[in-house]
Design a protein that fits this description.
The complex is a heterodimer of chains A (about 350) and B (about 280). Chain A is α/β, with parallel strands linked by helices and about 350 residues long. Helix content of chain A is about 45%, strand content about 15%. Chain B is mostly helical and about 280 residues long. Chain B is globular and about 75 Å long. The chains are: A alpha/beta (about 350), B mainly alpha (about 280). At the A-B interface, helix 3, helix 4, strand 6, helix 7 and helix 13 of A face helix 3, helix 5 and helix 12 of B.
């Protein structure tokens, strides 16, 4: 009995500091790899320096983290979650997010309208999916409109993401006189594009590899990936078509049930700090979501990096984020059945 | 009767694991019978619509393609793996044995994704294979290997080979060499000894290897996903494409259940077909 009591006492001593430290940290859910490193280096460290509160990260894929938080509903594993705008709506619809009080986020005063996704989640940085191609492999090519993807010389050269067909579905609808809500109008147009597809990439690395080795010299590509590959010496031309490029926004939200909401607001405020936003834009070659961020001119001039209201309004095709969350499954199924297979 | 005092202690954890697997499978089954609610993570009421949707020719084709790719992979893995396993067991030179073992087993130590990416480098239009063929003057323009069934099967054979070699080597090493010596002493040449003694006696290993390779390949995901590029799809890729990438978990669950049933059915057929052969093997 004495031994058991001593063991329990020792266990209590070991666990007590752990419990204390668990209460004194902010837990952030984010994608792994360079995303986690970026959030830690550019936002987390600054937050810790300002508050003295360390940040712990839970990393994983978009769907993995969504499932985990769904299972932990009411007692969230993280205080803050980064995810894409439309997946954020799935969190919100399931009651996993706290409603935001933007009055507590001073830096949100310069947030662009397009980054105010819902009462629950706001944008932190943005990018576009657009046409990227290898001018050295597609001689004399010029893409000025999404309609140029339907030209005969694109046949058998195009790749697009297999995980999200919403970009092309909405573009085909727009070219056919419809929009995201009336996407069926573009079905016939998109079927005409079927012979142009050579492959469908499954992730960023796969996209980068297929365009770097010339396997698919034209892609519907994430602007950040194109800029990254260009930095690696791969000759890639990124186009903003006259209709605009399809906007993507990664968002931040506070988890419902978080006991550190006040700290979470401070973290979000750091994330929207103009200087942090400029650093994020430089690191990922994406758009800041606050209009007072002062970007390096070399970054600001990159296609798909929006720094003015005019650019946000004229160069971005915005798919309603809530509609996209609702339609993704339907679009994905139609695309798999009619275009991929 | 032998007393087994620790049987309970050993069986209890296994039983708990089995119960956890059964519970997970029951959850998947339950999901497969629930309706998908757009924009929500919660499934709706009970329905058979997910299974009805599987009746489309597209899904039948992917299921058949999967069985065909598994068959080809198992066949070619056996054809390549058997000589390797035979050499591994019969080589007398330790260095040679080590080289064969390294060739056969090293792929196991690389992740499936790494192995698959290396095949993209080999099979790409500007890859190693096309470069060699172009330099040798055998082709005038790059051959399209990537995103074809050939490429997917090639990469899957590489992924599956270590398992096949290990199973065949185990079977071959259990064959009493006296049978082969007896046949040779009675005048049989090496080929006849192999065909009439070694090969029949290794039948259980072949059956086990082929069955395992088949089942192993059936669940392949990364290789067909990356090498197939969405043009060559297996059941697991469909589960990902239509389920997880679009949050339609009920439909993904129904695809998984259908895939599981198909796996059991094919393995049962293989077992029935191999039953007469198994009688040859025991010695």
């Amino acid at each position: 009995m004495k031994r058991i009591c001593m063991a329990l006492a020792a266990l209590a001593l070991v666990l007590t500091p752990m419990q204390a430290s668990a209460q004194d940290k902010l837990v952030v859910s984010v994608w792994g790899g360079s995303w986690r490193d970026m959030v830690d280096n550019l936002i987390g460290k600054k937050f810790t320096a300002a508050t003295g509160v360390p940040v712990e990260y839970i990393t994983g894929g978009t769907i993995d983290r969504l499932n985990k938080e769904k299972l932990a509903k009411g007692n969230p594993e993280s205080d803050i979650t980064f995810t894409t705008s439309h997946v954020g709506w799935l969190y919100a619809n399931d009651g996993l997010y706290e409603q935001l009080d933007l009055a507590k986020v001073a830096n949100a005063k310069n947030l662009v309208a397009q980054a105010k996704i819902s009462p629950y989640h706001i944008g932190t940085w943005a990018y576009v999916y657009t046409i990227g191609y290898r001018p050295d492999l597609i001689k004399g090519a010029a893409f000025e409109s999404w309609a140029d993807l339907w030209r005969p010389e694109v046949k058998g050269k195009l790749a697009a993401p297999d995980f999200d067909p919403s970009h092309l579905i909405v573009v085909a609808a727009l070219l056919s006189g419809g929009d995201a809500a009336t996407w069926e109008k573009g079905q016939a147009k998109l079927k005409e594009l079927k012979p142009s597809f050579k492959a469908f990439y499954t992730n960023d690395a796969n996209s980068q590899q297929l365009i770097a080795n010339g396997e698919t010299p034209i892609q519907v590509i994430l602007s950040m990936n194109a800029h990254y590959m260009a930095g690696e010496g791969v000759p890639i031309e990124l186009v903003i078509p006259k209709e605009g490029a399809v906007l993507g926004i990664d968002t931040v939200a506070i988890m419902k049930g978080s006991k550190k909401a006040e700290l979470a607001y401070k973290f979000i405020n750091v994330a929207l700090d103009p200087q942090v936003q400029a650093e994020v834009a430089k690191f990922k070659k994406g758009s800041p979501v606050v209009l007072d961020a002062k970007l390096d001119p070399a970054i600001a001039k990159l296609p798909g990096v929006f720094t003015s209201v005019d650019q946000w309004n004229k160069q971005a095709i915005i798919i309603d984020h809530k509609l996209r969350a609702e339609k993704t499954a339907e679009w994905r199924k139609w695309f798999a059945e009619n275009i991929m297979n | 009767m032998t007393s087994r005092p620790f049987l309970g202690a050993f069986v209890a954890p296994a039983t708990l694991c089995a119960l956890a697997f059964v519970a997970a499978l029951a959850a998947v089954m339950q999901y497969s019978l629930r309706a998908y609610v757009p924009g929500s993570l919660e499934p709706g009421g009970f329905t058979l619509a997910n299974f009805a949707a599987l009746m489309k020719p597209l899904y039948a084709r992917v299921f058949l393609d999967t069985v065909w790719i598994c068959f080809l992979t198992a066949l070619f893995t056996l054809i390549i793996g058997y000589p390797l396993a035979y050499a591994l067991v019969h080589a007398r030179n330790v260095a040679l044995k080590s080289v064969i073992l390294v060739i056969a087993v090293t792929p196991l130590f690389l992740g499936e994704v790494v192995r698959t990416y290396s095949w993209i480098v080999v099979l790409g239009n500007n890859g190693f294979l096309n470069s060699m063929l172009l330099k040798a003057g055998l082709i005038g323009a790059p051959v399209q290997f990537m995103f074809t069934e050939f490429a997917v099967v090639t990469a899957l054979v590489h992924v599956t080979l270590p398992v096949m070699v290990i199973m065949l080597a185990a079977a071959l090493s259990h064959i009493d060499r006296d049978y082969e010596r007896a046949a040779a002493s009675l005048g049989a040449g090496p080929i006849r000894v192999f065909l009439t003694v070694t090969l029949p006696l290794s039948t259980p290993g072949i059956i086990a290897g082929v069955t395992t390779a088949f089942a192993w390949t059936f669940s392949a995901f990364a290789t067909p996903q990356l090498i197939g590029g969405g043009r060559v799809n297996m059941v697991s890729n469909l589960v990902y494409q239509l389920g997880f990438a679009s949050f339609n978990f009920p439909f993904a669950a129904s695809l998984s259940v259908a895939g599981l049933v198909l796996t059991f059915a094919v393995l049962a057929l293989m077992r029935a077909a191999a039953a007469p052969l198994e009688k040859i093997g025991p010695h």
